[in-house]
Amino acid sequence: MGRLGFFTFISRQLTKQPPVLKADLTGKTVLVLGANTGLGFEATKHFATMNPARLILACRSQSRGQAALDKLQADTGYSKAELWLVDLADFDSVKQFADRFESDGGRLDILVENAAIAASTYKPTKDGWEASLQVNDISTPLVAFRLLPALIRTAEKYSTLPRLVVVASEVHFFVEIPKEVYRHADILKTLGSKEYCTDSNMLPRYTLTKLLNVFFVRALNARLPPSTPVIVTMVNPGFCHSELLRDAKGIAGTIMLFMNRILGFTAEEGSRQLVWAAVGGEPDKLRGEYISGCQTEEVADFVLSPQGVKAENQLWDELVDIAGKVDPRVNAIVEQYITATPA
């Protein structure tokens, strides 16, 4: 495909969504990041109906997370869900979360990385990064790195094929990394700097973070040995009613809110795509693939272009360096499980 035209987008949004795919998750563990609201919460509701042994809701807020836990049980009758706290805007919190899972010693069959924020103005985290870049494109991969050994151990111990699902978006078709950025040695550092994050450069920030999600999944999959018993994939839930738009401002924000009201899927409809990516399809045909409409599709032309391939490799090297400095255990994981160059 490579391109996504406006009328194709409209047609997709007006297409009735198929019912959610069901699977038997008996004995399995499912972990969803960003599970207390929107797509993440609706996906956990669907997973709860499939009888998982453990269903972990990873949330930033204790109060909101507990409210989601209570609603989940009220809506589904599932009483074994667990609330684990993690703030992706805080590297220390991410490390503590990963340490907890490591010491927990349990299996991990499905990891859905759904947490994301949309920002239109520069707000640094305590770690010094622009917030949405840290949450969407540094901490999300950091969790993936740290939990990759658990996914692989689960596969080896239980003879299963775990999945890592990163929630991307079709908006990655509408943005490219500016030439003046990918000419720098440090793309992420440049994008996250206060100097770069002017009001105009922040306007496409969310779409850019979703493009970086696509690059991450492709780069990780390309560097996992083909025999690795883990499926890494990315999914587009479509244009959905979401709290991501709660801070929409200005003319662009007004247009987005209007389009969302007219064309947006419900969060439950969008969550069906997350569930499909986690339990549907032929697993080996999903490795590193972009899923949209319950099928694999080609990513944007820019991703496949020589500039995109160069940027992907450059981003990977920089990300591994950043993550390894944030958490030295990442270095050992990359060395043990991931090849230095694409397979």
Automatic annotation (TrEMBL):
Cross-referenced InterPro entries? NAD(P)-bd_dom_sf (IPR036291), SDR_fam (IPR002347)
Tell me where the signal peptide lies. none
Q: Which domain of life is it from?
A: Eukaryota
Keywords attached to this Swiss-Prot or TrEMBL record, sorted alphabetically, are: Oxidoreductase
Record-level Gene Ontology MF annotations: oxidoreductase activity
In terms of PANTHER family, this protein maps to: PHOSPHATIDYLINOSITOL-GLYCAN BIOSYNTHESIS CLASS F PROTEIN, PHOSPHATIDYLINOSITOL-GLYCAN BIOSYNTHESIS CLASS F PROTEIN-RELATED
- Quote the protein name from its UniProt record: NAD(P)-binding protein
